[in-house]
Amino acid sequence: MQKVVTVTLNPCFDVTLAVDSLRPEAVARVAEERVQAAGKGVNVGKVLRSFKTPVLMAGFGGSDNLSRYLSLLGADAGELCFLPLPGSIRENLTVIAGRDTYKINRPGFRADRGAFGRLEKAVLEQVLPGDIVAVCGSLPMGIEPLWVADFLKALGESGCKTALDCDYMTKELLSLCRPWLMKPNLPELERLVGRRLSEDEAVRAAGRELCALGVGVVLASLGEKGILAITEAEDILVPAPHVEVESTVGAGDAALAGFLEAFLSGDSLRDCAEWAAACGSDTVTRPGTGLAAKSSAQRLLDQIRDNWRRVQD
Asked: Distance (Å, rounded) from C-alpha 243 to C-alpha 213?
């Protein structure tokens, strides 16, 4: 059976602190604190595991606190392959003060070419043709984007499908590694093509530009507008259902997980995009770093499809 391998090069602890208020020089007392093992690829893997999709989570981890990180992932995290490096896994702090949210990302460990080669070898030994390898998130200090592009190219040549969710690729590197899928948000897509994308048609044109470089599917997450899936042959906009937003953290990761799960089930591009939109929308209804649950995402999927049928009628 095909599996998904998520690669998180720069994992983190997501620390959410709730305070009454945050003012200069005033003491802010924490009313609630949550700590979770996270990182974009790990978030994708968590959702897939909860959906019973076979998944291997791989990446680096700072040896100073890697055991705590793996403990927070829990026994139900499934197969793990995290290579220890000197240093600590970073903390991403989210401070919620009333209606305001503040995000502070701390630096983490440093990696080098030798470490990246070891991780690359470990992943290549684990995958089979037809598996999906999703490389997600930021790079730790010392890792070059070109190494990631070469890794993706090698995975593609081995028969794997590669997915990419990051903000460090260039058009030149995309033409080298030619990922099967890329999931940018709107600012990331604008940075890639070098221009503002204020209309849906401009987003479609930008997606087709990336497809011309060899990207198979551009899955653009557009926030409250929804999901736009673009290939050379077609594009499908799935408007997001109306929900009460608690937190947007992890929504894009859940959307990617939903798309991958639906694809492995043999669904059409539209079905994959609809399930991605449902999973992303379900995530934003959860406080802090909560991720999608299949039952509630299914209810949102029904709403998305009902809305689509009404538009068609």
From this structure: 36
